[in-house]
Design a protein that fits this description.
Blueprint (H helix, E strand, L loop, with lengths): L2 H5 L5 H18 L1 E4 L7 E4 L1 H5 L1 H11 L8 E5 L2 H13 L2 E7 L7 E8 L2 E8 L9 E9 L3 H12 L3 E10 L5 H9 L5 E6 L1
Parallel strand pairs: 3-4, 3-7, 7-8, 8-9
Antiparallel strand pairs: 1-2, 4-6, 5-6
Function: Catalyzes a salvage reaction resulting in the formation of AMP, that is energically less costly than de novo synthesis.
Catalytic activity: AMP + diphosphate = 5-phospho-alpha-D-ribose 1-diphosphate + adenine
Pfam families: Pribosyltran
Length: 198
């Protein structure tokens, strides 16, 4: 194994396993439940207080790297994925790429349109200045709900020549089918790592 491989090997599994326990405790203590947001009947779990807590942030970031090996780049999905993506990339000692909502980047861009529950949206990454061809990319976001945004982001990265090798999120929302959507869109073998399920 070369020094470059060691740099990309990620934290030891015993370290990330401890961080998973600490992160789950921090989420249990600090996450707040908001009724009827973003619409009536939905109970929204706000992770902002978890990330504002130093121990919570540190443990969540390390927990997101659990099982990561051979990563060349971390891609964080707009917008909370930016916060996490940069920190995870720092932990893994690799670079970070922001996957932006449409219209936020100067041209030229790679772009993908996708369908949401309430309409359509687009995601973009730069088409010049950054060559991600052949890079092994970990996709990071805060929450996995229906999975549509993660699939669109992965497809965008793949169109630009990258190999998406995993998805890591703080929380997977139970019962919304996000993991199944990712399996259908990107293949059942793509690892999906959630620090917690709620």
């Amino acid at each position: 194994m070369t020094d470059a491989d060691n740099l990309r090997s990620g934290p030891a599994d015993d370290v990330t396993a401890r961080a998973l326990d600490e992160a789950r405790e921090a989420i249990a203590v600090h996450a707040r439940m908001v009724a009827d947001f973003p619409k009536p009947g939905i109970a929204f779990k706000d992770l902002t207080p978890v990330l504002a807590d130093p121990v919570g942030l540190s443990s969540v970031v390390t927990a997101l790297t659990h099982g990561c090996r051979g990563i060349d780049l971390v891609a964080g999905i707009d917008a909370r994925g930016f916060l996490l993506g940069g920190a995870v990339a720092r932990e893994l000692e690799v670079g970070v790429l922001a996957v932006r909502k449409g219209g936020k980047l100067p041209p030229p861009v790679h772009s993908v349109d996708y369908t949401l529950e309430y309409g359509t949206a687009s995601l973009e990454i730069p088409a010049s200045g950054i060559d991600i061809t052949g890079q092994r990319v970990l996709l990071v976001d805060d929450v996995l709900a229906t999975g549509g945004t993660a699939v669109a982001a992965a497809e965008l990265l793949q169109r630009a020549g990258a190999h998406v090798v995993g998805v890591a999120v703080i929380m997977e929302l139970d019962g919304l089918g996000g993991r199944a959507t990712i399996a259908d869109g990107l293949g059942a073998d793509l690892p999906v790592h959630a620090v917690t399920v709620g």
